[in-house]
Design a protein that fits this description.
The chain is 24% helix and 20% strand. The chain has 475 residues and is an alpha+beta fold. It folds into three domains: 267 residues, Spore Coat Polysaccharide Biosynthesis Protein SpsA, Chain A; 136 residues, no CATH class; 38 residues, no CATH class. The strands form six sheets. Strands 4, 15, 16, 17, 18, 19, 20, 21, 22 and 23 form a ten-stranded mixed sheet that branches. Strands 11-10-5-14 form a four-stranded antiparallel sheet, covered by helices on one side. It has a three-stranded antiparallel sheet with strand order 1-2-3. The chain is globular. The N and C termini lie far apart (69 Å).
């Protein structure tokens, strides 16, 4: 079995967000059955010290209070399990170490490698003139690092672990695919103030092509070389929870797999559907990383299962009936944005009613005591945070609000991005049981006179609105 299994079929000419960066790093430990799936005898015995995997679990730091599993344990009543992961395909986050936080890696014209500590070389004031480092404080007088050498020898993408530490160089075919992706979008991130006066300089990653950066008034804070996500390609985990959702599931799936961002892990947790949901999941199995169908304890239990098997840097829930606003949402959020110190990203969403649509701007996170300031479909939570803070199964309606309120209360960092992230279909449980939803928020927040007055008035307004609607129906 080869890495090209899913390109040698009817989808040869189709590139999905979930099928572009597939790797098979553990084949030497795995056995496969007649359906080309990992056998039950070997799938829970993947061990790799480099990737910090022990018995098919990602081993974190000793202080971590969470566990990430590659496969969910078998449960009574399971109807199915599948996806790319069950066929030996896995995904990772990537970082290009040409410019990293610790040092700048350079080569001289003879191919010798040098590491320049950032304490000696400040990338924010790094000027490149005529393909040379023009900085007398860098202790680089004995060699002349050329941009062309930097590009050819050090433009290397590394697989990173759960804590964004480089592990090992990515396979050559993955290196090429990532470089091709960034080359395809470089026009969006062109470095300005460059002159076309040196044919020896070339850097496809940062779009310096036959040019030098010789404007003393422009610093690399303009060019976003340091901490730019042009040198990072995080794996984004998208989770869809569904139960008897055949009517809307396909639209949700397509909105995920048709994202232009190429490093997406897609997980579907089905609650043991009895309609045609499983047929739809199997129809798209070639583009789904992992799916299971089994009874659960409700939507939040299913969401917690998704968190357990997510291996990406960020987690988003796009449940059945909802979808991404357009195909470039993930690209807008995760390319060329510094998110290193962020715990929660949130944006706007479009509400879809039966006969109209409207754009709902996210509120001020400082007002979260008043209730939800954004819908969970338009948010992404850092995996390291989400795996420690899962959904409270005792909160049947507002566990998602409770999660965000608790994260805010404990000083986690929220970042608002003015992007329409999701299409949200009105009529969900929190809409239908509106008063119960508001009361569930009230139960979660810290109580004081101001909050109690606010929620008392809010509940009263909802009761009045409901009464007026009933009167209009009677009339």
């Amino acid at each position: 079995m080869t890495n090209n299994q899913y390109t040698n079929n009817q989808y040869t000419n189709i590139q999905y967000s979930t099928t572009q960066l597939l790797t098979r790093p553990f084949d030497d430990q795995l056995e496969f059955d007649e359906n080309e799936k990992i056998t039950s005898e070997t799938k829970f015995n993947i061990n790799n010290s480099t990737f910090k995997i022990q018995n098919s679990k990602l081993i974190g730091n000793p202080e971590d209070k969470f566990e990430t599993v590659l496969f969910l344990p078998e449960t009574e009543g399971r109807k199915g399990e599948g996806g790319l992961r069950t066929k030996g395909y896995f995904k990772f986050s990537y970082e290009n170490l040409m410019f990293n936080d610790e040092c700048l890696i350079l080569n001289d014209k003879y191919g010798n490698e040098f590491k320049v500590d950032n304490s000696k070389l400040n990338n924010l004031t790094f000027n490149i003139q005529h393909s040379k480092l023009d900085n007398s404080d860098t202790n680089t007088a004995d060699f002349t690092p050329h941009i062309s050498h930097l590009t050819s020898n050090n433009n290397t993408w590394y697989i990173t672990d759960f804590y964004n530490n480089p592990i090992q160089p990515a396979p050559p075919e993955i290196q090429q695919k990532i470089n091709d992706y960034f080359a395809s979008i470089n026009s969006t991130f062109k470095i300005q103030h460059s002159t076309l006066d040196n044919p020896d300089t070339y850097n496809s990653t940062f779009n310096i092509q036959h040019s030098t950066l010789d404007n003393p008034d422009t610093s690399n804070s303009t060019f976003k070389i340091q901490h730019s996500t042009l040198d990072k390609l995080p794996l984004i985990s998208i989770i869809t929870v569904v139960f008897n959702g055949e009517k809307y599931l396909e639209e949700t799936i397509q909105s995920v797999i048709n994202q232009t961002y190429p490093n997406v892990e897609y997980i579907i947790i089905d609650g043991g559907s009895t309609d045609g949901t499983l047929d739809i999941i199997k129809k798209y199995e070639y583009a789904i990383d992992y799916w299971i169908s089994e009874p659960d304890k409700g939507i939040y239990d299913a969401m917690n299962k998704g968190i357990d098997v997510a291996t990406g840097d960020w987690i988003n829930f796009m449940n059945t009936g909802d979808s991404f606003f357009d195909n470039v949402v993930l690209e807008k959020l995760f390319v060329n944005n510094d998110l290193e110190k962020i715990d929660v990203i949130y944006g706007n969403h479009q509400v879809i009613y039966t006969n109209r649509k409207r754009i709902a701007k996210a509120g001020n996170i400082e007002d979260i005591w008043k209730g939800s300031q954004f819908c969970h479909q338009s948010s992404f939570v850092s995996s390291r945070v989400h795996k420690v803070n899962k959904y409270n199964l005792c909160n049947k309606i507002g566990a998602d609000f409770e999660l965000f309120y608790v994260l805010y209360k404990y000083k986690k960092t929220f970042k608002y991005m003015d992007v329409i992230v999701a299409n949200y279909s009105a009529g969900g449980l929190s809409d239908i049981e509106r008063i119960d939803s508001i009361v569930s928020w009230w139960n979660v927040i810290e109580k004081n006179t101001k909050a109690n007055l606010y929620y008392s008035w809010t509940v009263l307004k909802e009761i009045l609105k409901s009464w007026v609607k009933k009167m209009l129906v009677i009339v």
